[in-house]
Amino acid sequence: MHDTAHFMERRKHPRAQLQLPARIRWQSPLGMRIEVTETVDVARQGILVHRNTPCVVPARVWVVFPYNPTVGGSTQPETPARIVRVKKEENGSYRVALHLEPPHRELRRPMDQERRASQRIPFALPIFVRAAGTPFPEESMTGDISQNGTRFESSHIYAVGDNVLAKISWNEWSKAGELAGRVVRVESMQDPPGPAPVADPENGPSPVSRSVAVEWTNSVTGLGPKAAKS
Q1: Average pLDDT over residues 169-188
Q2: How high is the pLDDT of residue 222?
Q3: Which of 19, 20, 73, 123 could connect to 66 by a Cys-Cys bridge, CB 3.0–4.6 Å?
Q4: Rounded to the nearest 5°, which phi and psi values hold at 216?
Q5: Domain containing 37 — which CATH number?
Q6: Number of folded domains in the chain?
């Protein structure tokens, strides 16, 4: 009895038993994979879903919840998440617990400290990025975006000063075609303790993930926070 009570106290938010559709996206060696599943229960900071095959802790995923297939996945906002627990059921299926990691909104800096010409908003959007001069883009997700640039997650190696071309398939951004940019910052991403993050939750570890910040070098006037939120 004591152990059960202690376990329940560790949860910051109560869980509700709701069976709702959820869409999960993750990066595999051949690009993004997407699957639609159903929740077992939900809480403010996480969801528990059904899955027929296992996956690895702490894989990075992006979640649309609740997912409405009649609207179309490209117009529904996605939330970054981590796989934190996998439990095999007696029938051979799995219950997978996801911890939601909604982006933190930055506090506005004083004007004399603000170096950005336009506000960046934390938003997870599909993005296709390729190094200038190469034909094949990497499919990834943004961490934030603005008229001046974006930040995205990547397993590729980038250096400050690299020129890239990016296409964002979302509302008004998709009409702009490929946007030219320059890498201005590269940071290794810190992951929670445990195995390395994985690109494919079923098939093993991937290279270290990086956060890559890009500054646009061509004009994208009118494609700021308003276009991302619409």
Answers
A1: 89
A2: 58
A3: 20
A4: -65, 140
A5: 2.40.10.220
A6: 2
